[in-house]
Specification:
Chain lengths: 235, 300
Amino acid sequence: MLELKNIETFYGNIQALRDISIHIEKREIISLIGANGAGKTTTLMSICGLVPARFGKITFMGEPINGLSPDKIVSFGISQVPEGRRIFPQLTVLENLDMGAYLRNDKSQINEDLEYVYELFPILAERRHQQGGTLSGGEQQMLAISRAIMARPRLLLLDEPSLGLAPLVVKQIFGIIKKINSEQKTTIFLVEQNAYQALKVSNRGYVMENGCITMTDTGANLLKNPDVKQAYLGI
Amino acid sequence: MEYFLELLLGGLTRGSIYALIALGYTMVYGIIGLINFAHGEIYMIGAFTALIIASVLTILGFNHLSILVLASLVAVIYSAAYGFTVEKVAYKPLRSAPRLSPLISAIGMSIFLQNYVLLAQTSDFMPFPNLIPDFDFMEPYAHVIGSSELVILLTTAAVMMLLTVLIKFTKIGKAMRATAQDKSMAMLVGVNIDRVISVTFIIGSSLAAIGGILVASHIGQINFYIGFLAGIKAFTAAVLGGIGSIPGAVLGGIVLGCTESFATGYVSSDYEDVFAFTLLVLILIFRPAGILGRSTTEKV
């Protein structure tokens, strides 16, 4: 579905990604794990076009998407839950969700999806007329995920959805990610520092270090891998 | 009391014009963080276009109402096209440049447009026809408020209500607010930023043109320099109300207009600017973000 081939991305003269190749098949959950500064977020930025790759090729459903503007890439069916949630703080919860469905015109379908996310996160229904900036961190993460779902994406990119959240909320968020994958048939690309949780829900995983992919295997195998255990699982 | 009322209505009239222009400054600032110094010139171009169209239509023998409607319509469209083009030519190429570069470009654009009109038209004051008729039913109140003042007040109120509805309830309005709050996130939900910015310039320029026509018709003469003065005042109003805030621009305009009007009426017209800018300084000392411009607390 999504394929990155030999991607090299730069910030000015500084190279952040070196020869990254990743492929994601339909309905998979794929995770990308690695330490701070390894280039995980940059990988997502290159996919969504905010920091375009300088070399290499990105194809989505067989069509090349590198070099396109971010809003064009979104229209192909790629949605992102960015690092730090990035809720529109002065828009209400409902308006934030409306923005998620910005490119859609099927009103009745949008309302159905709205009911769906309210079912996933009842707290959002309660707070629908509250400004996004007044929500707690966990609620904002739920809103960010819901906003992305409202686009009915074919591929959902999640950047550190567990960052800074209470363990109970983290569990809930990962549960929802699995649920979206099975119920909405959405393919998921998960970037995480919380390697254990991420690999547990993933079909396959990639390990990233200093801008390079150093390992790739099934989620279960990576969890058993001694190097991964030592470096990312702390056991 | 009657004198007070007259000053108050005069202040409101003046203030609503400032507000109309200030909206253009504040909307552009909210979205791309740029003080569009060429905005005053758009106001001036609106007035000149209306003058030219009105003159031609008068020669062709059109009646009063159709002149008013057609001249305004053409002036608004023409100014909107100017605003749109200025952004594409002078600001868009500098979007990722340091903040100072587009600012200088804006000042350059302002000087360019002023001199272009100076050369294309004239440096003298030109008489502007009174497009707004004197209503008979206003006769008894003529000592407090004139017909054209009433029209200015009603027009600006209507325009501002339309703008509020647009920004609050329409899809493009929501996209504008989202873009102002987080540009790259807006892109990630599929908003075409270029389009939002263009729409902002088009709306702001249309408002300025409406202001230009109303004032020119009220005062009765224009020249190439009117945009600069009106622009500075409206910019002051925008800062006063809190730049980036739409209700702030309206409030700032009204406060500034009334201050000037009362200063003129009770002290001397020589001091109207002194009072206006003293007010600005005081507000910036005690409320640096402007009257309504407050940095909302955001949880992270």
